[in-house]
What we know:
The chain is α/β, with parallel strands linked by helices.
Amino acid sequence: MAQHLTFLHTLTRPNAARIRRAAAAAVAGLSAVALLSACGYGSKAEGTPAGADTAAASGTSAAGGKLSADTVKIGYFANLTHGTALVGLQEGLFQKELGATQIRTQVFNAGPAEIEALNAGSIDIGWIGPSPAINGYTKSDGKSLKVIGGSASGGVKLVVNPDKIPSLDDLKGKKIATPQLGNTQDVALLNYLAGKGYKVDPSSGAGDVSVVRTDNKVTPDAYKQGSIDGAWVPEPTASKLVTLGAKVLLNEKDLWPDKKFVITNIIVSQKFLKEHPDVVEAVLRGSVNTNAFIKANPDKAKADANEAIRKESGSALEPAVLDPAWADIDFLDDPLAGTLQAEADHAVTAGLLKKPGLNGIYDLGPLNKVLTATGRAPVADAGLGTK
C-alpha cells in the first residue's frame, strides 16, 4: 500500500512573488499525492502511467469533459496474454481517455483472486480469463459482473519434459501444473484429460494424471526441480519452460475452430457500470486504441509489455522467451462470445461447474458504441447479452 503523503509549506513575510512560487509548489505536491496515494489488493498500485498526455494534464478526457469518477481501479495479470492492459498503461493510452480520472492498478496471478477483488470493490474493471468470469457471474446469480469486451486470443500451451512425456499418449501417471484451481488453463486441461478418458478429481487434482496447481512465478523452478513433468500455462510461462528444455506438446489454439478462442476478457462490476458508464466507455476507448497501437507498432508494444513485466517482477523477459510468446498471441476487441459458451461447457465437463446460465453475461453496448464511432462494425454477444 502506498504511503500517504503530507505536503506542508510555510510562508514568512509573504510577497507576491513568494506566494506565486508557493502556489506552484503546492500544486506539484498535491499532484504527487494524487499519483502516489493508492492501496493495492495484494499488489502494488500505480497512478498515471508513463506516456499520459496533455488530456490528463488539463483535467479533461480525450473525448472532452470531466468524467464522473475521480478514480478507476483496474486489475490484470503480469502475463503477455494481458498485453492490452500492459501496453495501454505503459503508453498512457488509458489515461489519455480518462483525463483527470486517476488509475489505480492491482496485479493478480490468476482469475479467482481477481473476481474476489471485484466483488469486494477493490477493483472496478479487470482483464481476466473466461473461466473465472463465468464462475463469478454464475455464483452471483448474474449480479456481480458484465463482460464488456475482448482482449486476446491464444497464447496457451501444454509444455512437458520430453524425456518423461514423449507424446500426448504418455500423460498417464504424470504431474501437470496449472496456475490455479478453476482458472482458465485449469479448466482447459481438465476438459482435455476428460476428453481423452482420464479420470481426475477436479477439486484435488488427483487421478490418472495429477493436476498440480502452481503459481506461474514458481512453475519454472518446480519444473527444474522435477516436482512437475509439464504445465498447461499461458505465456510467457510456456516459453520460459521451453528455454529450460521443455517441449511444446500442444498449442491450445489447435483445438479450436479457426484457431481462435478467448483467453482474456474485460469485465466490470455491474455497480460501477451503472454508476460510471462514461468511465467504462473511456477505458474501452483506451483498450481499442491500445490494440490498434499493438498492431501498428508490434516491436514497440512488445517492448512495452516486457517493461511492464520488469516493473512488476523485477526482471524483464529474455528474447528467447519474449519473442515466441508474443508471436503466439492475437490481440483483439471482439470477445469471441461463442467460445465463451464453449469454455463454460468445458468447465461442466471437467466437473468444476454445473450447467451455467450465461444469459446476460455480456453488455457490449459501450464497446460497440466505441467501435461504430471509428467506423468499425459492432461485435456479437452470441445471444448472451440479455436474460
